[in-house]
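User: I'm preparing a small set of examples for a lab meeting where we compare how different chains pack in three dimensions. I only have the primary sequence for this one, and I'd like the structure in token form so I can line it up with the others. Please keep the answer compact; I'll paste it straight into my notes.
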Amino acid sequence: MGAAVLRKTAEERRREIIAAAFAEFAERGLHGASTDAIAHRAGVSQPYLFRLFGTKKDLFLAAAEHCYRITLETFLRATEGKRGDEALEAIGEAYHELLSDRQKLRMQLQTHAACDDPEVRALARRGFGQLVELIERASGADPGRVRDFVAFGMLLNVMAALDVLEAEEGWPRRLMDACRDVCHEEV
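Assistant: Understood. Below is the structure token output for the 187-residue chain.
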């Protein structure tokens, strides 16, 4: 007798497809990614992919939502039991670690790039808003400080995408040194 084959549940397959879509959309974006490549990467047929998600955009939305959820859950864990500056510092450290995941960073940027679509824009606004509201609640910081904190995070996104966060010379080093100076003045 052969070994028993364990069938995966629809939810397990759904998670695998989202992971495959996450990778493909991070690399190629909403319009450049192919559902054929996503199905192949996930080891499923294209009809099955569409049975679970309906459309390519629905799959993109699921991947984008997953991206925001990763960040939100990371921030929630980082701020557990912390308030004020301690919470901001913990979020900053956690986010810096997230930036090392180039695939996640690229998925986040691809989501922003696809915001010309109203459904993508609505999801991005909701996801980004949840992050800002968590930062506000956990830190208790005034709106100007929250603005500066979030703006610094977006600057880090750009610098991470350019792969210059760890540069030792030139404008990236000067910019990062200036950012560190500001961060240390505030704490």
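A couple of notes for your slides: Residues 56-79 form the longest helix (24 residues). The CA atoms of residues 26 and 109 lie 8 Å apart.

User: Perfect, thanks.
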